[in-house]
Design brief:
11% strand; 9 strands; disordered N terminus; binds coproporphyrinogen III
């Protein structure tokens, strides 16, 4: 049996008896239990109902035996509390894009207790129900939130967002500052309600040149992390497309860096040094393959880590809806079974 605090110990680069694992988007459509709850409510209704949100948060802990739970919500939920109406189809669609000074000024920085009480109530329920399994809270990184706000929906290249960033840099920084201030309050409220780690999702950071990431994004991420009343709560920063940004991300103040699968874990550890933990980085599509392939991929990642403390196993991005649950269970068992080196 592994010790219960394996995940939190690994976040702090402390030794653990086996590699802890959780999975991005672990509560989601690949799980029949999730689809059953979801068939009776919209996604946003689920997010806003603390009993249902807590229920689906717990599903992967019970079904898969993962070593951490992540709050069921979405990175865009607090954006709605800033005054922009939101729908999911299934990706986020905003009532109107935020592209002008007036639209940015109209965004409010919400009082979290007042506008997002359901998130805090979900956390309180989960802390009562999760015995020994740590709970991760999260927010979207300011750049990823800005991508959706300026574009009004998902996009392949977020051209409207980049257009504002490059042509009206001061205005773009005003938007980023507002999103950062909101995120500091949002994560601090989650920490106060009881989350034991937080993850910042910069899902679109990798679409920027390193020089632009340094100029437009890193100062805000650093302020976000500095603004947290952490009291020992580790901060995980996940940047999709982090490969060319690792030297910048290293100095963000995060304790753990989430890696996608386009960068080798060994190389990332070399660049980040021994004091920063890493999380990742299996290609989610490997879970669509036979178990022999899954096991080989897990072995390769554990070997790349080389037995160093400070590795949390995860996918390099969210799990795909077509993933067989049996393969996910096999992944969790395999990571726990293989004690590398
Ligand atoms: O990881 C978890 O289990 C916790 C819950 C969680 C969700 N979204 C639930 C969700 C978390 C942490 C997120 C984060 C999120 N949301 C990100 C960052 C991580 C990433 O994937 O890059 C982003 C970019 C979003 C925005 C978003 N929400 C998109 C693009 C989509 C549609 C894509 C898809 O998977 O369909 C969503 C919808 C969403 N968020 C679903 C879930 C379970 C599917 C909703 C449904 O049931 O219809």
């Amino acid at each position: 049996m592994k010790e219960p605090p394996g995940f939190l110990a690994a976040c702090r680069c402390l030794p653990v008896t086996s590699t802890p694992i959780w999975i991005m988007r672990q509560a989601g459509r690949y799980l029949p239990e999730y689809r059953a709850v979801r068939s009776r409510a919209t996604f946003l209704e689920l997010c806003k109902n603390p009993e249902l949100a807590a229920n689906v948060t717990l599903q992967p802990v019970k079904v898969l035996g993962v070593d951490a739970a992540i709050l069921f919500s979405d990175i865009l939920v607090p954006v709605e509390a800033m005054g922009v109406k939101l729908d999911f189809t299934p990706g986020p669609v905003l009532e109107r894009p935020v592209r002008s000074r007036q639209a940015i000024d109209a965004l409010t920085i919400p009082d979290i207790e007042e506008k997002l009480p359901f998130v805090l109530e979900t956390i309180r329920i989960l802390r009562r129900e999760l015995t020994g399994t740590p709970l991760i809270g999260f927010c979207g990184a300011p750049f990823t939130l800005a991508c959706y706000l300026v574009e009004g929906q998902g996009s392949r290249n977020f051209a409207a967002c980049k257009k504002m960033m490059f042509s009206e840099p001061k205005l773009f920084h005003v938007l980023m500052e507002k999103l950062t201030t909101m995120s500091i309050r949002y994560l601090n409220a989650q920490i106060q309600a009881g989350v034991e780690a937080v993850q910042i999702f910069d899902s679109w950071g990798g679409i920027l040149a390193p020089a632009d990431y340094r100029e437009f994004v890193i100062p805000h991420i650093r302020r976000l992390i500095r603004g947290l009343d952490r009291g020992g709560v580790p901060v995980i920063l996940f940047v999709k497309g982090c490969g060319g940004l690792l030297d910048l991300i290293r100095d963000s103040g995060a304790d753990v860096i989430g890696l996608d699968w386009m960068v080798s874990l060994a190389w990332a550890r070399y660049l980040l040094g021994p004091k920063i933990a890493v999380q990742g980085n299996l290609d989610p599509a490997v879970l669509l393959a036979p178990k022999s392939r899954i096991e080989a991929a897990v072995r390769r990642i554990l070997e790349e880590n080389g037995g160093r403390p400070g590795h949390i196993f995860n996918l390099g991005h969210g799990i795909l809806p077509s993933t067989p649950v049996d393969n996910v269970r096999f992944l969790v068992e395999t990571v726990h079974r293989l004690n590398c080196c």
